[in-house]
Structure formats: C-alpha cells, structure tokens
TrEMBL record:
SUPFAM superfamilies to which the protein is assigned, alphabetical: SET domain
Superkingdom of the source species: Eukaryota
UniProt name for this protein: SET domain-containing protein
A GO molecular-function descriptor: protein-lysine N-methyltransferase activity
InterPro entries assigned to the protein according to its UniProt record, in alphabetical order: SET_dom_sf (IPR046341), SETD3_SETD6_MTase (IPR050600)
Lineage: Eukaryota, Viridiplantae, Chlorophyta, core chlorophytes, Chlorophyceae
Signal peptide: none
C-alpha cells in the first residue's frame, strides 16, 4: 500500500515492500514481550494497518521503565529518511466519541449513521494532546438529566464493550491490551500517591493532594450520574465506568467535544520533540494514522533496545499532566508551582 503524508511531503517508500521485507538482521535484543500488545499488533495488521516487524510491545522498556514499544533490531536514519512510517493504524480501528454518540442515540431510538468522524490527527495543535485538559474530565453534568460529557460518553462505550461484549467486541484486542489499573493518581493507593508527589517536588506535595481528591470526587460523581442515566441499558456499573474514564483521560486525544482513542499509537510513551501522529491514506483512499522515529522533526535512528516515542503533552500544564498520567515530564518540571 502506498501512503501519502498529509502536509508532510510525499512518502517515497512502498509500505507493501516493507511488509514483505526479508529478515536479514541478526538475533534481536531480547526483552519480556507484552502479550496483549503483540495481539494488538496482530489485530492492527489484520485490519489493514502496518507495524514494522523490528518493533515489539514489551513489558518494560529500559528508557521509560514501563510498558512501551521497543526496537528489537536497529532501524537506521537512512531507512527513516525514505519516508515509510514505522506504524500505520487504520482510523477505522479508533474508538471515538462518534461511536459513543451513536450508541447512546440508539438507546433512545435514534437513527444511527454508518459514517464515523475520527478526530483530526492535527490534534497536537488543537488540543492538549493525548492527555486531555483537566476541564475535559471534570467539567460537565452532575445530574442524570443532562448528557454526560464527551469523555464520559466515550467511557460508557468503552465500559460497555468491555463488560458486555467482551471478546466479541470489534475493539477487544485494544481493550484487552489496556492496563488493568490506569496510571491516574486519583486511583493510586495512598503510599503510591505520596511517592508520585514526592517525585515532583515539595510544591506538589503541599498543594496537589487536594487537587487529586477533587479529581477523584468529580470523576466518581460523573460516573455515578452516567450510570444512573445509562447503566441499566448498557449493562455497566460505576466501577467499570470509572475504570473506562481513567483510560480515556490518560490515553484519548482530541478536544472537549471530539475524542478518539488510538490503538497501539497510544502505547508509545512520551518524549518531548518526538513524532506526533500524522494522517495519511492507503491506496484505496482509506485514512490511516502514522508515526515514525524522529526528534524535532528530523529522522532519529533507533538502535536495538531503543524505545519508539511520540510527543503528546503540548499545551499541558504540570498539574494536568499529573492528574492524567501520574507523573510530570521533565520539560514541565520547571513550571511546577
């Protein structure tokens, strides 16, 4: 499949030729493989996507010390300059706010649409990135008479697909790969939260516990309201919706009104200056979202054992980053007050 980068010039490499590339590289660097992540790679490929076969999902990367996407063989800068993505995910694999609205509309007897709008992959200039603004999760209705916020609409869909459809869900390989306990600090035990705050510094230790508690209260309040309104019809409970909301707030990209969860792409960890997902099309005109290895816009060689990063915290404050991810990235530490 030939891809053409939207707004980034032409992709000169034929992705199909990359997929069929013979394995000529020596024994790979070995790390514990993440089974759920590998099943996700298989699903993305089955649905028409592409993942370079030198990339693996591993349980712990040497750089981030957590689950991520690792090069088990070297990928040279010269290869990267040819323009083919390392990962291309069909946008039909995304779990979006449009899917959620269609589901909720169907419960009210509304007509559903076969057209699903995937949030623009220019998200980095239009939003906080994968980490949503604090107001996205904490603002919105507190009454069961109002519609849930966009984040909680997506959470209802995710909770329904997980608890009711299970392995029969189209998105099951993605759902099954999600962490059992999301990283949000408002889900952390006290001792773990204290350690996470200490890692940020004295200002966070003094001022942020009340913000974490406020977030915890707001999340449970909105989950309770959403379950009162839709829980019986969707077969979901408050615990399941809180879990799903945590996944949405720590992984989705977009804006207050338009959100999407990006399978596999969201398994890449953050590093400032790394690639941001870019939209493209396959030979049939179907949209895909792509990432490669770069730093500050220039191709960046991956040695065996190096992690593939993306950048997703543009416009994110230290507190927003902490409430969404449970940590503050180095480039934001100087802004902690």
């Amino acid at each position: 499949t030939m891809l053409a980068r939207s707004g980034r010039g032409s992709v000169r490499a034929n992705v199909a030729s990359v997929i069929t590339r013979p394995q000529t590289i020596p024994t790979p660097v070995l790390y514990p493989i993440d089974a759920g992540g590998q099943r996700l790679i298989e699903w993305v490929s089955k649905e028409g996507g592409f993942v370079d076969d030198r990339l693996k999902c591993v349980q712990q990367t040497p750089q981030s010390l957590c689950r991520g996407v690792l090069a088990v063989h070297s990928i040279s800068e010269e290869e990267l300059r040819e323009g083919a993505p390392l990962i291309a995910v069909p946008e039909k694999c995304y779990l979006t706010s449009d899917h959620a609205r269609q589901l909720l509309r169907s419960l009210k007897g509304g007509a559903s649409s076969n057209t699903v709008h995937v949030p623009s992959m220019a998200w980095v200039s239009a939003s906080a990135g994968i980490g949503l603004p604090l107001t996205t999760g904490l603002s919105g209705p507190s009454s069961s008479q109002q519609e849930p916020s966009t984040a909680f609409q997506v959470a209802l869909l995710l909770a329904h697909e997980r608890s009711v459809k299970g392995p029969a869900s189209f998105w099951w390989p993605y759902i099954d790969s999600l962490p059992a306990r999301p990283p949000n600090p408002w889900l952390m035990p006290d001792a773990e939260l204290e350690a996470a705050l200490a890692a940020v510094g004295p200002a966070a230790q003094e001022q942020w516990p009340k913000e974490v508690e406020r977030a915890r209260h707001a999340i449970h309040q909105q989950a309770e309201a959403a379950v009162r309104q839709y829980g019986k019809a969707l077969g979901v409970d408050e615990q399941g919706v809180v879990w799903a909301a945590a996944q949405v707030l720590s992984r989705a990209f977009g804006s207050d009104t338009e959100l999407g969860m990006a399978p596999l792409i969201d398994m890449c960890n953050h590093r400032a200056g790394a690639d941001t997902p870019w939209g493209s099309e396959d030979v049939d005109g179907q949209p895909v979202s792509c990432i490669t290895s770069c730093h500050n816009g220039q191709p960046s060689e991956l040695l065996a054992g190096d992690e593939l990063f993306i950048s997703y915290m543009a416009r994110c404050s230290p507190l927003e980053a902490f409430l969404n991810f449970g940590f503050v990235p180095p480039e934001l530490m100087s802004k902690v007050k």
